[in-house]
Amino acid sequence: MTKPRFTVYIPSHNYGRFLGEAIESVLRQSVRDWELIVIDDGSSDDTQNVIKLYEAHPKIHTLKTQGIGLTSVCNLALSKAKGVYIIRLDGDDVFDENILLVLGHILDQNSEIALVFPDYYLVDPFGEIYSQERRKKIFVDNHNIDVPPHGACTLIRVSVLKEVGGYREDLKAQDGFDLWSKIINRYKSTNVNLPLFYYRQHGNNLTTNSQRIFNARRQIKMDIANSKISYNRPIVAVIPCRKNFDFINDLWNERVGGNTLLEREIDTCLSSKLIDQVVVASDNPLTEKIVDKYDDPQLCFMLRDSQSTIRSASIVPTLEAIARKYDPKFQGITIIRYLQSPFVTVETIEEAVATLVMSGADSATAVEEIVSQVFRRSRFGMEPVNRVGEFRSDFDSLYKDLLSCLATYTRNFLTGSLTGRSIVSFVAPSAECLNIDSDQKLKLARVIAGDE
């Protein structure tokens, strides 16, 4: 066989019941210059029996590994690839018959483009379509590059993938984000608004392992941001608190998990190696006694004007005053940590900084995605605001600001803005989403912390 234009590889770990359909979708491609590598990564189901049905095909090569994990399988396929372009098809997903034709044409006609990805359908375990995921055209309708393409079904030049070092094998997750972060600032990428593969949701997908994904995502971000953070010093964490205007006076002094909310937050911020200065800003002088107790030069107190603590008042003048003392050149980053969210970890705080630095935006905030249908009133009754379970784009998602952690460039304060014009977000772990804004939430926080 002459050198193929495309290398398609299918990793399968216990996807035997879906694997045949995946392989068949490659066989049905409307272009013929491809090779297919099928890799059984330590399956204990009937994957091998399925592979035997196809292994005699002259374009199909089979490999068997012993549970080495997805990213290691990806690198193995890359080392075996003979094609000019490479694309992964997971063993539980299905190609549209024209995916290689369409994506290959884009790379053929645009030699400067390294990576191209399509829209896709979401299907249930039985292959029934229940939604279509659509990405706005990057660099045309979407100028934020914080959302990577799907890890699979993205066509990449083999030479580029090898040049950037392939996939990281230490993370075992977020291969798409890893690849995107390596390529996006070095090469041109694009997407096509055609649904060209079927992404099966069946409860056993890697994407359902949320903590594993969070950890991998954070590690990738920090590795990228570490080389840039030194240009954005100092990093100042501000913990605002007040005497009045919460549901209870001096909320900062309420105890959760054995410490006051203020003490919990100070401990978290001081544990970060990224933060240069921690400032407690309060209109109650009693909070200064908490600060003095630490006797830590990294921690200081600033007395706020009580007028600035009104709920409708902007916090920017307070932050600008802090910046003039600790970041007089306004070249660093300010982190705002709201002590009403007591379970936010230092890893989340540092992810806010890393997200900001790598994104090119003006600020980054922790959010929670709203997955249920949201409605608004109209002349004819209630109408949906977001799309759920149907055709939708990445711009249709709604997010709730958790009021827990915001990282913003200090220079924004000079124009009176807290966030600047461009705001990016990152989804916080669900365990950190509790915001204490009522007696009931305070009781719940104490139950979670083991106080009650």
Structure description:
The protein is an alpha/beta fold. The protein has two domains: about 5-210, Alpha-Beta Complex (Spore Coat Polysaccharide Biosynthesis Protein SpsA, Chain A); about 230-450, Spore Coat Polysaccharide Biosynthesis Protein SpsA, Chain A (Alpha-Beta Complex), CATH 3.90.550. Helix content is about 30%, strand content about 25%. The chain contains twelve helices and 21 strands. Strands 1, 2, 3, 4, 5, 6, 7, 8, 9 and 19 form a ten-stranded mixed beta sheet that branches. The chain has a seven-stranded mixed beta sheet with strand order 14-13-10-15-20-16-21, sandwiched between helices. The relative contact order is 0.10. The mean pLDDT is about 90.
Concise description?
This protein has 452 residues and is of the alpha/beta class.
Give the secondary structure arrangement, pairings included.
Layout (H helix, E strand, L loop, with lengths): L5 E7 L3 H12 L6 E8 L5 H6 L7 E6 L4 H11 L4 E4 L5 E2 L3 H11 L3 E11 L5 E6 L20 E3 H6 L11 H9 L4 E13 L9 H20 L5 E7 L13 E2 L2 E2 H10 L6 E6 L3 H9 L4 E5 L12 H11 L6 E5 L8 H14 L3 E8 L4 E4 L2 E4 L6 E3 L4 E12 L13 E5 L11 H10 L4
Parallel strand pairs: 1-2, 1-4, 2-3, 6-9, 7-19, 10-13, 10-15, 13-14, 16-21
Antiparallel strand pairs: 4-8, 5-9, 6-7, 6-8, 11-12, 15-20, 16-20, 17-18
Helix pairs in contact: 7-11
Task: Give a quick account of the main beta sheet: strands, pairing sense, barrel closure.
Answer: 10 strands, mixed
Task: From the 3D structure, determine the CATH topology of the largest domain.
Answer: Spore Coat Polysaccharide Biosynthesis Protein SpsA, Chain A
Molecular shape: elongated
The CATH class of the largest domain: Alpha Beta
What is the tally of beta strands?
A: 21
Backbone structural class: alpha/beta
> Mean of the pLDDT scores?
90
The DSSP helix count reads 12
| Total of domains | 2
Oligomer: single chain
